[in-house]
Amino acid sequence: MSVVHVVSVSGGKDSLATLLIAIARCGLANVIAIFCDTGNEHQETYSYLDYLELALGLKIVRLKADFREEVLAKRAFIAADVRNARVYATRPVFEADGKTPVLKRDGRGNIVLNKKGKPLQKTVKVGGGRRIRWTNKAKRRALAVMLPTGNPFLDLCMWKGRFPSRKAQFCTEELKRNMAVSYQLQLLEAGHRVISWQGVRRDESPNRANAKKWERVGRGLWIARPLVEATAADVFALAQSHGIRPNPLYLQDMGRVGCMPCINCSKAELRAIAARFPEHPVRIAEWERIVGQCSKLGYSTFMADAHPAKDRRVVFADLNIQARVEWSKTSRGGRQFNLLDEEENEGGGCSSSYGLCEQLEATVEAEVT
Prior knowledge:
Blueprint: E1 3-8, H1 13-26, E2 31-37, H2 43-56, E3 60-64, H3 68-80, E4 86-92, E5 123-131, H4 136-143, H5 152-160, H6 170-189, E6 193-197, E7 214-218, E8 221-224, H7 232-241, H8 267-276, H9 279-293, H10 312-319, H11 321-328, H12 339-345, H13 357-368
Parallel strand pairs: 1-2, 1-6, 2-3, 6-8
Antiparallel strand pairs: 4-5, 7-8
Helix pairs in contact: 1-7, 3-5, 8-11
């Protein structure tokens, strides 16, 4: 039974460093590099993967999720939806003093408890409620656009009827993790033992602070995280020591090179994307239109955020991608345009938050000589 080393490559600095370590320790012939294409990538990332294949002498397996069946099933469900049930807004019930809660009881008069064993407060319905089925108008709107496009990110959002968010970040699970796991399971079923190499650093976020360097997750499957103790400077230095250039996006104000843009991108990064790559916000605006039509509400924003308004039209007007781009150009508080940032973005040259410009010049010079 052979051991296969699978490295998830994103085109970013950490996955590159992990790939270099895996090759050095295990040999090129024993390493399989995979790339999970979200469909929301910058062209520079695709070109960079081609560069890595030539520079390292390996073939990167490109994986792409397919939601054709899910989109068509959702389309059929909407077309046939005739449900008559309603959902209602509710309000809590209090005793005559207006302070003492009235407890909820079942049909036998027993107090109803929640999962933690605490009594529930009685509530009553407010208003006439709304039907949970799709209205005829919403059906026509959704069915006009709900057809598979072949783009994983867009098809996923059409199927869900919304974009991912910080609290419901299903894009990572559906577009990356599930694809990588499925590929590795195929190797296990073929009789191989699999070591999954992941470019995770503990200093990236609090969620990764306790990441293990080595972990067994199942029979024949292990996870290796050789970078858990490394810093961003360490991984860039490792690539430089091997004569490998960084992804060009790191030299153009980008702190990350995954989705372009990511739903969680910072204000500064969104501003840089709009200035350097204006075609991407334009594409996202079109996706907002399509996904909005696939939503029962009729509106959906790429970058979701808390908003006090209840009218979805008001929310969409304030949070659509073009409005967020304009917001990204303002100073803290979103009230005044930051002229200094505008001047900095007009240059269009090398601008790296990691200080890579001099490193790139040294790498290029070494390649020439």
